[in-house]
Amino acid sequence: SASDRSNEERLQSELRIELQTGTVAQREHIWGFYQRISSEDLSWTTIERVLQVVARDSDRTRAFGRIAQILTNITGRHELTDSQAANVRRICDELEKPTQVTHITRETVYQSPVREPEIIPDTGKSADILSTLEEQTQIKSSQSEGLQDRFGSLIRRPVIELDPQQVWQAYEADLERNSLSYYYNTARFVRYASTMGHIAGKRILRHIENDLARRNPIFLNALRPNLIQAYAHLDSPEDAQRCYEAADRTGHEERLDWSMCLCLLWSTRHKEAQAMFDKQFVATGRAMPVMFGKIMARYASLANAQAAYALFDTMKRIDSKPIALCLEKLAQACALDLDTDRSSKRLAEVVGFMRSWGRNPDTRFLIGLMHGYNKSHQDDMFDMVASKVDLDNAKPNQLFKFWLVTMNNAVRRGKFTLAQSMATRILADASRGIPKAVHAMCAIGEIGLAKELVGIDSGRFPDNNITANVRLELKLADTTTEPMQLEMFVKKMVSDGFTPSSSLFRELIKTLHMRGDSELALGAFARLTAIGIPSSVETLLYIMHLRLESSNPSSALSTFDDIRERLGSADLSFLQLHAATGDKLVKTLIEYRGIAGALDAFSFLSSLPVLRSKLPYSALIGYCLNHRLWDQAHSMVRHIVQRDIALRPEVANQICHYLTLRSTSSDAVNFLRYIQRMGSLGTMSNETLVSVIYSCIETGRIVDLEWVISALADCGTHLFLWRGLVDCLAPLNTSALLRVIRIVFETSEFKQKTALDFLKSTSGAKYQAVAASMVVRVLREHDQELTFPVLSRAVSHILETYDALYKTPTHTESDSDSILSLPYLVNSLSRFIVPAINSGLNPSMITRALMLLSYGSGGRHEDCLRLLRLIPPAKVDIAFFGAIAQGCARHGLYRGVDAVLEEMRKYHIKPSHKLITTILLGYGRASPPKRNPDQLSEETLASGQNSLQDASTSPTAHIENPSLDSEELPDVAPSTESVAIQRKDGQFTDRASEFHRMILDKMMHIWSEFEYHDQVRPRAAYSIVVQVCISAGEYARAESMFDDMVSRRVPHDEITALQLISLALRQNNIDEALRIFQAIGRKDSGNRHFGLKSVRRNAEHFSLIIEYYLQKSHIDSAMLLLSKMHDLGLAGPPWLYTLVLRHLAKANMKDTFVQTMRQIAQLRVKVDQEMLHTIREYTSQLNEPKLE
Fold first, then answer.
1. How many whole angstroms separate alpha carbon 241 and alpha carbon 236?
2. pTM for this one?
3. What's the Cα-to-Cα distance from 857 to each of 460, 578, 854, 918, 950, rounded to whole Å?
4. In this predicted model, what pLDDT tens digit does every residue of 599-632 receive, in sequence order?
5. How would DSSP label each residue in 667-725?
């Protein structure tokens, strides 16, 4: 993308600087910049130069750690070529040889299946990763090459072909060599460990963590995202969470967050995963297409069409380009939707979205539909889509997916011959195909054929986790296998380091139950889980069902407690299966224990200190609240409060929220007093506390309000509570907000620190300016000195509010909140800008403050200039004057811009071309006085009496303010509306021409500043002066300005082209206007039209000539030009259509009038009151129904 190229070019520029300077600071700057853009697809040339810079680090440990991190980033996307790998080795050989360290010996994982190694904490001290380099130089080169390639070549082979013992031995050998290849291959080894099953996989990953913690913690930190995903694949979210919390986020924040998001998504915490993705990636603009693809794949596997649609809507909203995986899984989700009408509409929407990116439904998209139609049993649609797949041009992976879904469909529909044929084909990919083929053959009872096809017992493949699970599935399908034989086989698997998959373990328990009885299944479950086999929630639900149906139903309570613990943070409402599971849990508890029994169990469990934080409060209280059992709910809350039982934070928030809504504010505050006694006030959510505070204010409970605010201020953990409170109270009750702030300060001993913390916590709030103004006010009430940190924060709050509300292109002051009006911001800033400047406010903030003060209200330029006198002359910058001039220009205060220019001369500051343009803009925006313009005199203009209209009514009202900070001058020319010919009674007249001539004389005096200071004359300056020339009727001077512009090779743009047309029409030279119009976007017909070739013709160019034709009563010519404009897909402004309809009505051209109204509707032109009045007036003259 363009942004990627831009970042890479910046990095290359920094590398060139480092090559010239060679400083340590520049090297560290390059490393920090690389970390920020490491997620982008950089070229190998750039990466190699970064490796060379990193290798020059005198700290070898840090250098090798950074090299390892770079290689991890690269191999996460693609493999290194042989030449690239050779270059990496050459770069590493240039590093100095490190000192010798002793390796730590340990047992192999397969010789100690029970005892798991202890994770060594990351101390941050890195051992040298090439500590045995001197020993390696003594080994023969051939032996070194053999050792170097053994581990890498093994780990690249298909998983099903790998012998875990051999891989482990190769890993140990590579570890003892301690070469760079160890770090290069460890990431692959982590991915391989995630396929080895829960028991052996976790053990190996922890050994890898131990090795890296001892040898290179830097690389361990770089590898933590891979470890998180590996633990997630092994169904060990607790280890993934541990890695996530232990990681150093510097430089790895995006990869860590994404890995943890995937971990949550692959577990049962889907809602939390989606919230994390929305907050950390979508909201921050870091969401990449591949992320959407993986999340979409998960939703498709869960048959959750609604979640897939929501993710698709997010993609469209942020305009994310879809990848093939995302489109494939989105098609699958659409096909899985049970609402066929919605599915069809969504599918059409998806296809349209694809085509907007230049893509059409391809083979992968059709295969996704086939998967969905197969799972939803829509066989007719499945056959129709399958017939459209182009197998001749399909890629190998696409062929595999097609054969797989066809095999699954054939198995379900009883087409055994087709299923066998497809099973034979998918065996080409052994790692993926063999388990799928065996499962299909077992489903149709072809066990012998399955053994023959895969050759699992022929020694074709070594013993590993995949082959062990395949053998287990074959035994489960073989009805002649005895239950005890199945249990013994699984025990043998575990002793060999292999783990049954969760689905096979659940199938094993069901098989034992069907072939034996519930006691046999329950006993086997207890024995197998005791040796380390993990059990899924679905398996536990089945066990609970068996125990409830057994002779001892009470034994199910322990299983229920286990399930509740697992689902404590799960999203039970996100997936239908999980929602049903949660309902079954609650119903089972109520059915077998009843409400009284459940409350008794709750009271008993709450008495046990170990289980207090794991009690099912939300389930019990939620049941009572949902069934309107208010008495039981109050009884439960009373029971908790009276016994001072510690609550989990989420339960405490739920109860407090319930009391706020259903009870009184006093009850909610009393509950908070209990929370304070338990020392858990810091765990309450900000949203809950804001609702309690607002309830106290609303009900007038001032005593309770003071206690809550004082308690929270003493707690000190709810700094960001004030942000939500400010946004809640500011628009409703500013007096209450001021009282809250006063209470906060009254309870604090260190008021300066409190003020600073309060301002920090409200940073980013919508009403942060209100908070800043009130904090300064309260500090002054307490006779506190306004320190620089407080003043700097307060000024920043007001400026950020101004930027957020008033610096959007489409924003108007009427759109703003009445509280956060410009006068309010200006007055608030005025109260403490002087002490802020005196305390040492930085220049950039001073510039922004001056901009707000001058821009916010007219006539403040003198105050702004007085503020400059508070600053030492040596520190006065041209940006200060530019900010004041922009404010004056906004209001059309030519006296103000003159004062700015005069003040600059006192400081001997040379004005830039941007500042001169801004001064011209101030004159250009000046509007004629409201009093009699015929009496305007030179004295009036010179005196600068402030009788000017608001800038919104001036001819250049929509001129953008030039930025003095940007490198390029923005377009400050008037908009197309401002140069439209004045429309008054059909005549091209301008009653204020005398005023504009006076302004023009002044502007020409300012124009000489360009030549005096040898400054470039920007196109914007020409445009401003030309517009005033046209308004003043000085057409010859306007012509000379254009001649001067093109003579300096300044090309035309859309605005100056519009002014050329306007100038010709003002002189009734329609032929010249048409020549200019036709030259736009086509060719440069002479020097006068220099640059028109690159100008794009827009609706305003059409509108100007159409208006001229209408004023001259050439309606046919006007309608012909209007039709051509519509053919180009352009829509004119509303005033143009009002004028057209008015002339059509006057000429009584009924058919054309109606046709024009249809075009207005088709183009969705905004119908204003003037247009509506014209339509009604004309239709009222006809003897037909109104055309409304």
1. 9
2. 0.45
3. 84, 59, 6, 17, 11
4. 555 554 444 333 444 455 666 766 776 666 767 7
5. HHHHHHHHHHHTT-GGGS-HHHHHHHHHHHHHHT-HHHHHHHHHHHHHH---TTHHHHH
